[in-house]
Amino acid sequence: MQHISGTSRQQLQISSLEDKIASENPIRFIKAFVEHISLEALGFTVQIIKS
């Protein structure tokens, strides 16, 4: 009987988006910049949404 062979389940690799972005990619600068912006100083208010 013929069957379709795929990737072995023992070869499963878990990776994150962070692992796939190169260290020199400009998005890393944008992320660092945005993380250091004080939203409160710009007039935004933080609201906690209850779920």
How many β-strand runs?
0
User: What share of the residues does DSSP label as strand, in percent?
Assistant: under 5%
Q: Report, as a whole number of angstroms, the end-to-end distance.
A: 52 Å
Helix percentage range? 25-40%
Round the Cα radius of gyration to an integer and report it. 21 Å
Anisotropy-based shape: elongated
* Oligomeric state: single chain
Number of helices: 2
Q: What is the overall pLDDT average?
A: 86
Helix/strand-derived class? mainly alpha
Structure description:
- The mean pLDDT is 86.
- The N and C termini lie far apart (52 Å).
- The chain has helices spanning 17-20, 26-35.
- It is an all-alpha fold.
Which labels suit this protein?
single chain
What is the element layout, followed by pairings?
Elements: H1 17-20, H2 26-35
Please sum up the structure shown.
By secondary structure, this protein is mostly helical.
